[in-house]
Amino acid sequence: MATGSAAVGRSCLAGFVDPEAAKCTSTISSRQTIHFPNHRNHQRLCSLSMNGCQGDHPQLPLGTIETRSFPAVPSPSLAVDTLSSALSQLKANPPPFTSGIIRLQVPIQQQIEAIDWLYAQNKLLPRCFFSDRAQTGNSKLSIDYTNGKLNGQNPKKHNKLVSVAGVGSAVFFQDLHPFSYRHWKSLKRFLSTECPLIRAYGAIRFDARANISSEWEAFGYFYFMVPQVEFDELEDSSILATTIAWDNSLSCTLGNAIDELKATMHQISSIVLKLQKQVPSTLMLSNSHIPSKTYWDLAVNRALQKIRSDSALIKVVLARSSRVITATDIDPIAWLACLQVEGKNAYQFCLQPPGAPAFIGNTPEQLFHRTWLDIDSEALAGTRARGKSLSEDLQIELELLSSPKDHLEFTIVRESIRKKLENVCDSVVVEPKKAIRKLPRVQHLYAKLAGKLRSEDDEFEILSSLHPSPAVCGFPTEEARVLIAETEVFDRGMYAGPVGWFGGGESEFAVGIRSALVGKGLGALIYAGTGVVEGSNALSEWDELELKISQFTKLLKLEMPLGIKS
């Protein structure tokens, strides 16, 4: 399936589309496609391929979705040996199903950081990484990590999942059409509440109808993967796992899937060294901003004129792309490890399809977290730097709490999210209604919202309605989208889009801000945005952009201060 640019005008923006209006694609280790009638509308076509084999798409659930666990071992090398032996036995004694997905996992009796394991895998692609926020700990689900299944008891401390790294794809999903209900159903076919650790990790574009620029081509309009080989970091132990998917109706047999997985396993390194969280500064040869400072001033002032006119527009979030050219290639995983130092109260993530740069980030903003029917979301808006002393920090906090401009921006975000949750929830609780969330470099206004979905199918509705939020787009959404399309001349790609994972009984998505696209020969494209409301001024908003990208620019050795060139 090709991943070229979409020929749709910039003025036509949407994060998602009507479930009845799109094609869907899921891919297992291949991009060849087949077409088949969809269960909701037989005149629509969907595409699916597995290992380059084609056939009619089955409408029935997979024959089996299961997790098989093995005794704990002391080291990653012994875990690799155990899994390799298990794969051989699985091929010799296949299960009596024509389709399925099986996770094989081995606990490791030592805590190894998932980021260290990923760095050791010699840039195997595709790859992914997702780390939960430190203060939220683990899933609300009680998972027995010795067998990867749900249990009825409270989770013990050592059972908390800290972060996940994966390479290769047992299943990946990608399309040149906006993420739709059909894509979601196609993806969920491979997930089960009985196997909560089989998850699909990925991201969705901010603007699903804008032209895709060359640096984002390999991502398509969305990209999700169930890793072939996965490393799970727990609080005091680890798990190495492999996942195999097959479907005979597509002429993709279990034997073929096992052979492909074995080829990946041969490339897995069991030697995992501690990655330095501080890398030597990379020499920056040049940097440039889109828009430049001059055009930024014009854009902000134009937005303010629009807000002050008879337009319905109250807020718009304008973004900037900063291209940094370095003397040597940047290792995205090394950069991500450095971001972990500042990772308290934030999610770290990495997504890199084959032939693509890596999308990495350290975002504080949760889009939503679903556990069964329980749903949580957050409102985050308003930005200030941290103080150099405790007294200065408290003074800045009070200034942020009492700022009319920031209160307006924050209230727009919180109330928009509340109304969207109320559309699919019986009741919504907002607590706290307005507080401060402190990060190492910045602090924000913050509120937490919680509700209960009426149906699990409402998960797609929540995802499609919460994105884009006023925190990354504006309000009203459509008016803000149009102004962004008219103003910004670069492709946001997955920046400010949903990034996270789908599971059986649980899913979690962050907002892909505080992020960068890093690749060989590319240097880095560092993204940041800021909300424009009545009371904003261009200079302050530019300074806020500089503050937000400082976690990246601290890793660069500058020939001149960042921002002088434009």
Notes on the structure:
This protein is α+β, with helices and mostly antiparallel strands. 24% of the residues lie in helices and 33% in strands. It has twelve helices and 27 strands. It has helices at 76-92, 114-119, 181-188, 254-265, 293-308, 332-341, 390-402, 404-422, 458-466, 477-487, 538-548, 550-553; strands spanning 25-28, 35-37, 45-50, 64-69, 99-108, 127-131, 143-144, 149-150, 161-175, 200-204, 222-234, 238-247, 282-290, 315-326, 347-352, 358-363, 366-371, 374-385, 425-430, 435-438, 442-453, 474-475, 498-502, 506-511, 515-519, 523-532, 556-558. The chain has a 22-stranded mixed beta sheet that branches. Strands 1-3-2 form a three-stranded mixed beta sheet, with helices on one face. Strand 11 (222-234) and strand 12 form a beta hairpin. Helix 1 packs antiparallel against helix 4 (254-265) and helix 5 packs across helix 11 (538-548). The radius of gyration is 23 Å and the shape is globular. The two termini are 38 Å apart. Residues 1-58, 152-158 and 559-566 have low confidence and may be disordered. InterPro entries: ADC_synthase (IPR005801), Chorismate_C (IPR015890), IsoChor_synthase (IPR004561), MenF-like (IPR044250). One of its GO terms (cellular component) is chloroplast. Belongs to the isochorismate synthase family. It catalyses: chorismate = isochorismate. Pathway: Siderophore biosynthesis; salicylate biosynthesis.
